[in-house]
Amino acid sequence: MTHVIGVDLGGTKTAAGVVAPSGEVLMSETIPTLNRDGGEAILDATAALIAGLVGRAADAGISVSGVGIGSAGVIDAATGSVVAATDAILGWAGTELVPGLSARLSLPASAVRAVNDVHAHALGEAWLGAAKGSSSSLMVAFGTGVGGSFVLDGAPVLGHRFVGGHVGHFASPHAYSDGVPLPCVCGGSGHVEAIASGPALYEAYLRFGGSAREALDTRGVFALASAAEALDGGADTGSADNPAAALCAIDVGAAAAGQAVGGLINILDPETVVISGGLVDAGDLWWKPMEFALRQELLLPLASVPVVRAALGNSAAIVGAAKLVLK
What we know:
Layout: E1 2-9, E2 13-19, E3 25-32, H1 39-59, E4 63-71, E5 74-76, E6 81-84, H2 97-105, E7 112-116, H3 117-128, E8 136-142, E9 146-152, E10 155-156, E11 176-177, E12 180-181, H4 193-196, H5 198-207, H6 218-230, H7 244-268, E13 272-276, H8 284-297, E14 307-309, H9 316-323
Parallel strand pairs: 1-4, 4-7, 8-13, 13-14
Antiparallel strand pairs: 1-2, 2-3, 5-6, 8-9, 9-10, 11-12
Helix pairs in contact: 1-2, 3-9, 5-7, 6-7, 7-8
């Protein structure tokens, strides 16, 4: 029975696994992404990671017939090249991802396929995770950034120029401070990602008067918000050293996230909605205001749409990438 390798190539780490036709990940490995060393160095390291797994699989009597990759950046799924990427991976834009790996692994180009990593994540959830059995599913991930994918009849909708799924980059009425639109990492302003991502939550906490001494990052903001909630809201949000500023920041970010997803549901009418990313791990402190805002936005026929947490965890993108080449 043939198996494939699924690869989740992100800005900080690259994970890969041997995936059975059932979707089970039989063995996996993770390496740091050489995100300062350029595309060719990343291809070399990724090829070595894959080759090592192919060898381990062979030792177990398992043959590997193909490689699927979910990669950071805008990925041209037809040519397997990186159309655009942020500075999270220097020199990644323009990299011939599929041709480069197929040559290094001595595989035909037809046996290697690639899409954006969020599309791979959504495909994994649609195949075996929270949206299993759904004819259509919308997945939106809230973490370091905001991304998404609409999976229709088992395939992610990539868009004509392969930019589909950049759901963090449309306008949000919450993404303003004193009437000025907040800058977004894409170069625009006033976008969903500028208010609803993890880093944006931290920036909102500071704008609400929170102290950088108390919250060094987004996790610290959630810790402070938990303390504020335990104290029934805490003191005045405008004073420094006040954990209630964290609670306000989370409420605003969650409301922006929910409103954005609700608008997307109105447009796409998916059977199932999956919410993923690091902010989901914060629990009800973020989830409840997010879902409340989402449902406030929905048109009446969509009021009962299922909105669920992602189920596959760190293996989702590996499974989804593998699905690209599994027959």
